């Protein structure tokens, strides 16, 4: 089954070039030229990945990202001419998984997309068991998190981050190591993206966020006492 990508870009020529490269790479493609059409297509197309421009009519990419992330964990690559760090941080805060700045090589964009999908697949590989901490339960077979009996929606990077920490229980993992394991060694952002995702993950865990410990000057660890298991 082919992977499905939703390409959201208001510049027709750029959108067509990106589409052609993804089709040649074996993806099923649907296009949108503005934010409103993007959301309409998202609801009917159910893409595996979204390539999302920021500067668009009717609704900008950041707003589309926020709305999509409120109901889905689908991977999102932000595509924009803006290169300022605060724009990248804003995109990651809204739940974007990667950031590509114009001008760009379509081949590089394809490589980033495939790398993102590969990491998601590897980290979502069924493990056939439940991972419990406090009132929370992470089902690695169904890729679902429940906290106090309530299902909590996790974005892909939030899931990968939590799974990484839990699989290395009581081991301090540096921000650099987290970047390499979750975002990949080709990630060109800074370490603040880790702090942002930790903050969002803690908010979703509520009281159980105490299991994720900050080790000042070193990184983060998942701390669980033997009696807690």
From TrEMBL:
Chain residues forming the annotated DNA-binding region: 128-224
Record flagged with keyword Transcription regulation:
yes
The answer, when asked if DNA-binding is one of the entry's keywords, is yes
Supply the InterPro entries for this chain: CheY-like_superfamily, OmpR/PhoB-type_DNA-bd, Sig_transdc_resp-reg_C-effctor, Sig_transdc_resp-reg_receiver, WalR-like, WH-like_DNA-bd_sf
Task: Show the GO MF annotations.
Answer: DNA binding
Q: Which UniProt keywords apply?
A: DNA-binding, Phosphoprotein, Transcription, Transcription regulation, Two-component regulatory system
User: What range(s) does the Response regulatory domain occupy?
Assistant: 4-117
Q: Which SMART domains match?
A: REC, Trans_reg_C
Cross-referenced SUPFAM superfamilies? C-terminal effector domain of the bipartite response regulators, CheY-like
Q: Which residues carry this modification: 4-aspartylphosphate?
A: 53
Q: Where is the OmpR/PhoB-type domain?
A: 128-224
Any Pfam family the entry gives: Response_reg
Superkingdom assignment: Bacteria
What protein name does the entry list? DNA-binding response regulator
Q: Which organism is it from?
A: Paenibacillus helianthi
Source taxonomy lineage?
Bacteria, Bacillati, Bacillota, Bacilli, Bacillales
